[in-house]
Amino acid sequence: MGEGSEMASTTLYAALGARLIRYAVEVDRCALVERDSVMLPAGLQYAWPHGSRRFLYCVCSDGRPGRHGSTHCALVLDIAGAGRPVVHGDIKPLTWRPVHISVDRASEHALIAYPAPSGLSVLRIAPDGSLGDEVVQSGTIALGKTAHQILVNPEGDQAVLPVRGNDPVPGTAEDPGALEIFEYAGGRLTSVQTIAPNDGYGFGPRHVDFHPTKPWMYMSVERQNEIACFDLAQGRVDGPRFLRSTLAQPAAQKPRQLAGAVHVHPNGRFVYVSNRADGTVDFRGVPVFNGGENSIAVYAIEPSSGEPKAIQFANTHGMHPRTFHIDPSGRMLVAANMIARKTREEGRTLDVPAGLSVFRIESDGRLTFVRKYDVDAGDDLLFWVAMVQ
To answer: What angle do CA 178, 15, 315 make, to 5 degrees?
Structure first.
């Protein structure tokens, strides 16, 4: 497929609560054009495309962070047509609120992670792309608190599951985090390795992504605002070999400061992590933003060692960029600022709405902010975004 047709066929999907919005992507202009939307049974938590890019696998819940909810399901959207996506096959009820879904390398199974209680499940994918029955696992899989992602490695023989843990709060001790590694075959998972420095205390993994050509894995450490780099060799995950802050000013960190998504650039030369903040302080009786960092941290990857070296912290011009994505050509990045907040400026308050921030990715990996599309989120959250070719 030539470059022009690739750009014309790229679509961005953004989830605002249960509403999945479809945008045409104009990479040359770094622009989005809203096309239409579809309502899902409940709020979309995460989605992942089939290898053919014809289907989008979604997990939905009326829960959200801090609220379990009571309606949870997995479904498939057919996104191949010119019109809005349509549900394909049966909607599968789930017992708990899901937080992540991915598809294995052969697009034969969908893997789902649940944060509370921590758990995972694997659903078969039928030849027509619809979801089938659950794959029964051979034994009990014990996990710590707050699983956050499950992703199969590029070779397709292992799955990685970051377990974030939880910070201590008055009256409750810290829940330690861990990085769980499984042997993966035919939809079945067998635990083979647990990585938990200091027994997982002070270690809060969130998401991982893999280098496209080298045996390196990068991970966002949510609770510590760090990026970690691991080696992948001979069936083991070794590390973290490198651990770097994601913040421009780590010494001035504010409450409610968290690392978010992590994505390696398609060319393998750069890796990006979102910094998200939405804490507030009182200003004349009004809660206003506390000044934390909402940015995309940009790292150049040292080509011989894989070390991530910070080169930029790009302001997203919004609040709490929970997710972001890079277009298939590697020239454009879109961050979803999840929530609205008021800010204080020159003795007055200003409203900062939720919205989609669009950046041009320069040849040196740095980001140039182009524009932000404000979104009236109301009581919903702009919870997920991705581009699909």
So the answer is: 70
- Helix (H) / strand (E) element for 6: namely helix 3-8
pLDDT in tens, 305-345: 999 999 999 999 999 999 999 999 999 999 999 999 999 98
Buried b (16+ CB within 10 A) or exposed e, 169-201: eeeeebbbbbbbbbebeebebeeeeebbbeebe
3-state secondary structure (DSSP) of residue 355: strand
Residues 6 or more apart whose Cβ sits within 8 Å of residue 61: 42, 43, 45, 69, 71, 72, 73, 94, 97, 98
Q: Is the dihedral of CA 270, 11, 384, 313 positive or negative?
A: positive
Select from 186, 183, 143 the least CA-distant residue to 165.
Answer: 143
Phi-psi group of 278: left, alpha or beta (phi > 0 → left; psi -120 to 50 → alpha; rest → beta): alpha
User: Considering the domain 40-162 in this protein, what is its CATH number?
Assistant: 2.130.10.10
Specify the pairing of strand 280-283 against strand 31-39. Answer: unpaired
**Position 285: which residue type?**
G
Q: How far is Cα 340 from Cα 353, in angstroms, rounded to an integer? A: 4
pLDDT tens column, 335-374: 999 999 999 988 889 999 999 999 999 999 999 999 999 9
| 140: confidence class by pLDDT, cuts 50, 70, 90 | confident
DSSP 167: -
d(CA 162, CA 261): 12
Q: Tokens in use for 173?
A: 């001790």
* Pairwise CA distance, residues 55 & 34, whole Å: 20
Structure token pair of residue 79: 């996104």
At 101-119, the pLDDT tens digits run 999 999 999 999 999 999 9
